[in-house]
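Memo to structure team: turn this sequence into structure tokens by end of day. - J.P.
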Amino acid sequence: MYTFLLVFCSFSALAQEQKPDTEAVSRVFYILSNTGPGAKMATLPLFENVVKASQNDVSASILLPGNITPSHGFPKAEQKRQETKEFLRKNLLEPLDNFNGNIIFTPGINEWAPGSPQSLDDLESFLQDNSNGKFLPNDGCPVEDIEINDEIALIIVDSQWYLQDWDHSSDYNVECDIRTKERFFTEVKDALKDNFEKVKIVAVHHPVLTASTPGAFNRIFPFFRQDFQNPLYREFRKSLETLASQFDDVIFVSGNDANLQYLHNGRNPQIISATAAATTPAKTTGDALFTSEEPGYAKLTVFKNGSSRIDFFSVKPSGEELLFSKKIPQERNTKIELEGAAWKNLGDTYSASIYTSEETQKSSFYRFLWGDRYRNVYNTKIEVPVLLLDTIYGGLTPIKEGGGQQSRSIRFINENDHEYTLRALRKSASRYIQADLAPTTFIGDRVDNTYPHRLVLDYFTTSHPYAKFALDNFAEALDLPHIKPQIYYVPRQPALEIHNDEYGNELYELQAHAGSENKSFAQFEKPQDILSSFDLLEELREDPQARVDENEYLKARLFDMLIGDWDRHQDNWRWAEYEDETGKIYTPIPRDRDQAFSKYDGPLIRLIKLAEPRLRKMQTYDEDIDSIKWFNWSGYPLDLQILYQTNWKKWEEQVRLIQNAITDEEIKNAFAELPVEAQDQTIEEIKHNLKGRRENLMRIARDYYEHIQEFKIITGTDEDEAFEIIRKSNGETEIIQKSEGEEIFRHTYTSGETEDIWIYGMAGDDSFTTSGTGDDLINIKVLGGPGKDTFNFQNKKKIKLYDFKSSKNDILQPGSRKLLVDSYKINNFNYKKFKYSIFKAVPYVNFESDAGFTLGAKTIWTKYGLVNNPFQARHELLANYYFASNGFAVSYNGEFAHLFYNWNFGLTARYTSPNYEMNYFGSGSETFYDKDEVDRDYNRLKIQKWHFSPALIWRNDTGSVFDVRTILESYKVEYEASSYLGEILAPKNDIFDQQFYAGAEANYRFYSKNTRAFPSMGSDLRLTTGYKKSLDEAKNEFGYVKPSVSFNYPISANGYMVFATKLGGQVNFGEDYEIYHAATIGGNHSLRGYRNHRFNGKEAFYHSTDVRSALGVWENKFIPFVYGVTAGFDYGRVWIPGEDSQQWHSNYGGSVWISAGLAVTGNIGLYHGGDGNRLSVMLNFKY
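Reply from structure team:
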């Protein structure tokens, strides 16, 4: 289903402008960037004019989004640092002394110069000690949000943090809670969500939109991280843009580009103000409404009604001039005035359903494929109380919109500052598609009422909408904290305020928010505080005495398995904080148990699980669990952090406690609490399965206990700690952790249960000691982390240390196994990184006009561990059957991480039966072919082949891959008298003998295209060079070079008309090679009007060019399709020794294409060349 649904793209309409209230200014923001590299004579006038203008403002701020220092940053060397300090005083701080408002500096490229992040921290201290300004974000973190006032929030994003190579220092993110890029985007989204009613100004050095026109080389070949089209930069800006597009009133302000720009993509305004230094050209086209290279600044005025105005000023010796002014309308909704008082007259109760009967009505074939699920429950009306928000709990006022990847909710607050969450029982299919399937493309409402939208809505019926409301009784019986949700019908009403357009007139659950503001509630057992899982992990990292109540967490997790709740990721937990004489202790508060008692019937979902491992955790609730590993997949990372010193006795005790508490009578009473209309046969089935699972719980628990015991992670804190590893007999290993001499952890592991243990010292100066001899040892990996660490491995068997090469560590025992590399991902702790493997199988189907239909299957087994690049090992096995020749092929591709650091070991192997492999029409550029005289088989060669090639592979995160490999292979051409080759060569010719070759090859590829389905920008550069020599009597020996380059560039403002071109070829060195090693052209990858391998020679060249244009969007209830046409022209030729030919070959033609959301494209073309017409059928574009 994931593959089927990932097919969307959206385009937003420009918001309608509103006239701003110029008399009610909330705040003025002056924006300048690139002041550090700027010459004094260029920068100072800008500051003078801004300072002067600010004197007339009641409330003002100046934003300097990056590059406030010279290009060398804030140097470590004292002399250069003093020079930089003096430069900053004279050219930055003193000119801004009299600015009438707040001064906010943010980092850019220059501030992350060598010496960072320490120099960045030093710069922060210098600026804040010598001015009234703030340098944000703090401590080298990537994001910080500031409440400016009731109307405005400022979200500061350090884009260079994201683009930086983190492997240059062990200090990255040591002082910061955000240590992964995934967490970074979560924090940005939370900041946007927390300020949903405000204008949100996102200050980010690198723009997400730009009209800058740097040199063509940088646009087409973005090798560097700072290039706008570089894959890493694209990932950053597209993800950020997509997040921002999901919220109203988000304005980006940036620097970096050395010009003045205002852009609007229909959803997000982008302001760029960076002309203090040398300028870069920009073109007013497409999203760009204004560009200028004149020295100047931007002024953003935000009004109290939520609208804004952007003004750009140039600063010249003759004075200041207004270059451009534009109103930015308010996008968010205002309070909706409801007509009449129908919401007051509904009575005390109301009957409603989650879905309509039309939405759940499916054909018998559909039900056969997808099962019956709980559709009948979703269209059943239930009678529930009517909720009036202005009366319950003393009256509720909305404060923020919430919800996760599929839920829709609003947070409310009452007069006592207690908060409550109103959560719709009808989930959002659009949110699910956006979050899970299109994280870098804003889809908006483009998929509403389409087939994928309906498919996702139907997918939601796999969870029972009301069964979870029986869980409170069970939680009370088990003494587990719980949320206590209540079902209501919520009409649209004034108390919903701006949310009346998207919320109301449906069923909701209302519950107390599990947060610190409600810590006095008895249902949460009145803790001292309530934390998120992220905050809990930070507390455990910072405080050696902090701990989780393992027994309470274990009880909650076993209860998850009892009720079939597989969705226990970290955000579905909150943590109650208590404190005693030993330190802080945390107990779990489970929440959002939507997936309890799920039902995934129907065969199709089982087939999809083979190809999509993420779906395997979704298991139908019955008396047993199909796969304990996959069922607990979401909860496993958190389990590893908490259940690392448990034993089976504790598990057994909790199982018996649950079995004794959840009696048949308790089950009966709990489900009797559900709405009467929902107490149907499905509830009887759930109760029956619950009783059966209760009886099986001991075995289920044992299965998971054995699974989780196989691999353990032990984490220290950021304080200095000592770890003692004591090897004992009978496969036992005792591990002791001490902080300041006090023992805080001791546990013994046995090799019969545990195979691997990872021990993280975290930050701080830690020591690791092994002693004892023992036998049958557990594999242990020790990671020192940032700081100076000491390793004393008296027993060096089955233990290996990992640490930063640049750290000054002490390794006391010679011969200790180690990997010392400056790798952020290897040496730093990430709780979502653990040891696991994934197997999946996918079908392979292909059609090619020469080769016909191919049908096969691919299996992929991927293993992840401590040292990944990007995996620890991957094995791919592909088996194909070729219908045109009744042949088959089997291939293997394996890769193993870090044979040498950053160099993977690769291994490929392939075997083909004597089936069609290539065409041969003769050698040279003037070979004859008449398709009306011979059939297609006449020019086909059937080749039996095997190939074996080990390799070293290097790749980076900016689009480059390089490998060097050795090759051993064999070819045997099958003799067929009726074929072209059989007619010109005798059966005893060497080519019909099996020939063996050895050789070596080097390959480089740089890929930066923005999408494979319809690439509108980017390049694909490839270079292969190699040498092969025969190992038999044929004595063939030759070298070869195969270069190719393609690039795509938009020639229309909206990017829907694209120029695409590709050049490629091959040169063989030496005369001794067979025709299957020759340089060839022809087919979909070169001359599309000719058959594959139509021309065969010693050298070959081709050039293909397309103009592709999207003509429109076909809106329908199935999938929105983009459709278009292509006009193409190809030319090329081959050369052979002794042929005096000037013959070039060309073809022209075009194609029609249709793309499902520009994610996958079907392409049918007709091309005419010297041999006549050729039909081309392709998936996506070949360049």
